[in-house]
Each structure stands twice: as structure tokens, then as C-alpha cells.
């Protein structure tokens, strides 16, 4: 490769928002069998309460639309201008691998719940231990260099119910993770420069549902939204 040529950005096959695929993937990496990802069938309180409790994280898959990008640009500019409080206990991973947002979401959900969700010895525990004291950019570099994680992601991405897009196909869907840390709900999106603090909450289910509803309200005619929860195994 010529010295003037930039290194090609790594690309993975997108992960499907499918709990069966996610669980097969993450349990092989070391998540305790007592925890799993499960579909969320609605955001009304009675439907949220059907999920085994306590819910520790939500993963939202949503369309990257013009409305979303316009809102995000304004949101980030506002935070840069006004600032925000971020708990030092929030672990945030930057995404530098194309189509890796599914894995980044899974990692965010588990890295920020290690006090209550056991991770058994294996590739995932090694990654989390290695990256816990690094910067978000350094964590991203570790993800790029983790061949075991990449292989597991690629294998799981091909297991979905729908045809897996190729690595070079343009995908307009994106995962984010919502977690509660030190009394506030955080949106963790590795494509953004920092976590988003959505403010204090006394009910993680209701608070997260309201945040997700706002994503949907920005694209009211789009049906490409799915929500998955990290919860105890039923």
C-alpha cells in the first residue's frame, strides 16, 4: 500500500435485530445463560411489564433518515455549546467499524451492567476487562483488532431470518443502546462523539419508552423500528 493511501475502514455484515441471533452470539462470547435479549412488543406500560424484570438495557434499531440526521446535528451542536453531565461510570465505545452498531450496542449494554450481570470467562470478559480504563477511541481500536469478536459477529450476522446484506452494501438502519447509570438514562451511540444524558429517571422502563417514542415521532411514517430488551431469562 502506498504511504499516501489511507487505511480502509473495517466493514462487517450488519447484525439483525433478532433476539435468537443475538443470544446465540453473545452467550458464546460469555454472557451468563441467566440473561438474554428479548423482543419488546410495545411501549405501553402493560406491554413493558410483560418483559421479565429487571430490564437492564434497551437496544433500538431505527432508520437513518434525513429527519434523524437533522435532529442529531442540532442535538450535538447544542450539547457542545451548553455541555452536559456524564457519570464517570458510563463506559462508551466509539464505532469505527462500518455496520458494527449491533455489536457495539450489545457491548454497551453489558459493559455498563457488569455490577449486576455476570460475564463468564471468555472473549467478551477479556474485551471488557481490557477496555474498561481506556478512552472511547482506544476502545474502538481494541474492537477493530479483536479477530475473535469479528468472526463471531460475522457468523451470527449470517444466521438471521432475512438475507444478510453484504459488507459493502449500504445499510440505512442503526442500533443504539439505552442504559441507566447513577440515576440517569444514557443513550449510547458509537457514531456520536459522546454519550447523551437524557436526564434523571425513577423508572427506567417508562423513561426509556419515552425516549424511543421520540425517535419514532421524528419519522412517523416509517415502520422500520424494533426494540430489544436485556432482561433475566424467563
From TrEMBL:
<protein>
    <recommendedName>
        <fullName>Ubiquitin carboxyl-terminal hydrolase</fullName>
        <ecNumber>3.4.19.12</ecNumber>
    </recommendedName>
</protein>
<dbReference type="Pfam" id="PF01088">
    <property type="entry name" value="Peptidase_C12"/>
</dbReference>
<dbReference type="GO" id="GO:0016579">
    <property type="term" value="P:protein deubiquitination"/>
</dbReference>
<keyword id="KW-0833">Ubl conjugation pathway</keyword>
<feature type="active site" description="Proton donor">
    <location>
        <position position="174"/>
    </location>
</feature>
<feature type="active site" description="Nucleophile">
    <location>
        <position position="101"/>
    </location>
</feature>
<keyword id="KW-0378">Hydrolase</keyword>
<dbReference type="InterPro" id="IPR038765">
    <property type="entry name" value="Papain-like_cys_pep_sf"/>
</dbReference>
<dbReference type="InterPro" id="IPR057254">
    <property type="entry name" value="UCH_AS"/>
</dbReference>
<comment type="similarity">
    <text>Belongs to the peptidase C12 family.</text>
</comment>
<dbReference type="InterPro" id="IPR036959">
    <property type="entry name" value="Peptidase_C12_UCH_sf"/>
</dbReference>
<feature type="site" description="Important for enzyme activity">
    <location>
        <position position="189"/>
    </location>
</feature>
<dbReference type="GO" id="GO:0005737">
    <property type="term" value="C:cytoplasm"/>
</dbReference>
<feature type="domain" description="UCH catalytic">
    <location>
        <begin position="11"/>
        <end position="232"/>
    </location>
</feature>
<feature type="site" description="Transition state stabilizer">
    <location>
        <position position="95"/>
    </location>
</feature>
<keyword id="KW-0645">Protease</keyword>
<dbReference type="GO" id="GO:0004843">
    <property type="term" value="F:cysteine-type deubiquitinase activity"/>
</dbReference>
<keyword id="KW-0788">Thiol protease</keyword>
<dbReference type="GO" id="GO:0006511">
    <property type="term" value="P:ubiquitin-dependent protein catabolic process"/>
</dbReference>
<dbReference type="InterPro" id="IPR001578">
    <property type="entry name" value="Peptidase_C12_UCH"/>
</dbReference>
